């Protein structure tokens, strides 16, 4: 269970002794160490190349034309060193470039999204899943029912089970763990396949970026704005610090890797 998902189950949404999380799947699946503690904002990392953004209103695109694929060379250079799946890196980098166009004052970096993806689901690898070339996990990532039991937040079903397969209770879904009501507000088809899907890391990354920019209400490179946005995403300082630490680690580590300057 991801740390954020566990925090959703805690009534106060805070990390306290009576509601301590189990071992994070990220700690098992992704890395044998915890990155050093960082100070906000995190290192923005090696910037992704410029890309041609998806034009709205067009016909559905086949996987071979997934716009995130323009970042293949960039992701190939970084993926192994950072231990982030290539499809996830492409989703984070494309989301940064898209936000720069639509919300240039936000200052969102791909490293922030990578930090969230790490803590939430080990970038779509939770439970042994793997991302395919379209950015979808090999098996759906679905959290526990939010049924109001002991130590569990109560959220009755809001989507008729459409996203989480549960017609009685809501569950957090996808690599970035959206609950259905949040997804309903921020959903986006980021890869042009005709479907806005929280299991698709392309869609989830851009939706998360837009959410953070709205929640922060300013430039995420400002310390106070960064923390406001992150604590709106999840009301736990411990969660936020873990996201920050991973984001900064990815950013700093990326500067040590030879990176291809142009996308494909």
Automatic annotation (TrEMBL):
Gene3D superfamilies the record matches: 1.10.530.10
Signal peptide, first to last residue: 1-22
PROSITE patterns per the UniProt record, alphabetical: PROKAR_LIPOPROTEIN (PS51257)
Spans annotated as Disordered: 25-71, 121-151
Keywords: Signal
GO BP terms in the entry: peptidoglycan catabolic process
This protein's record includes keyword Signal: yes
Cross-referenced Pfam families: SLT_2
Biased composition (Pro residues): 33-47
GO molecular function: peptidoglycan lytic transglycosylase activity
Domain Transglycosylase SLT: 169-216
PANTHER family according to UniProt: LYTIC MUREIN TRANSGLYCOSYLASE (PTHR30163:SF8), MEMBRANE-BOUND LYTIC MUREIN TRANSGLYCOSYLASE B (PTHR30163)
Protein name as annotated: Membrane-bound lytic murein transglycosylase B
Species this chain originates from: Saccharopolyspora kobensis
């Amino acid at each position: 269970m991801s740390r954020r998902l566990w925090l959703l189950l805690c009534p106060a949404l805070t990390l306290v002794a009576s509601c301590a999380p189990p071992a994070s799947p990220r700690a098992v699946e992704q890395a044998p160490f915890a990155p050093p503690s960082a100070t906000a904002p995190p290192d923005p990392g090696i910037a992704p190349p410029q890309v041609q953004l998806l034009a709205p209103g067009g016909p559905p695109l086949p996987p071979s034309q997934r716009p995130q694929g323009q970042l293949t060379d960039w992701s190939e250079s970084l993926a192994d060193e950072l231990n982030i799946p290539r499809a996830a890196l492409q989703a984070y980098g494309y989301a940064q470039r898209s936000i720069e166009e639509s919300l240039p004052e936000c200052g969102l970096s791909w490293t922030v999204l990578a930090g969230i993806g790490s803590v939430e689901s080990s970038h779509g690898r939770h439970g042994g899943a793997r991302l395919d070339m379209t950015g979808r996990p090999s098996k759906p990532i679905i959290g526990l029912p939010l049924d109001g039991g002991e130590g569990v937040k109560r959220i009755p079903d809001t989507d008729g089970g459409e996203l989480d397969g549960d017609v009685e209770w809501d569950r957090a879904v996808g690599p970035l763990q959206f609950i259905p009501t949040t997804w309903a507000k921020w959903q986006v088809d980021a890869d042009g396949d005709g479907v806005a899907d929280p299991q698709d890391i392309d869609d989830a990354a851009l939706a998360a970026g837009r959410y953070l920019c709205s929640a922060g209400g300013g430039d995420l490179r400002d310390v106070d704005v960064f923390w406001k946005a992150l604590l709106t995403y999840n009301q736990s300082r411990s969660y936020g610090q873990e996201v920050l630490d991973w984001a900064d680690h990815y950013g700093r580590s990326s500067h040590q890797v030879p990176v291809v300057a142009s996308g494909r």
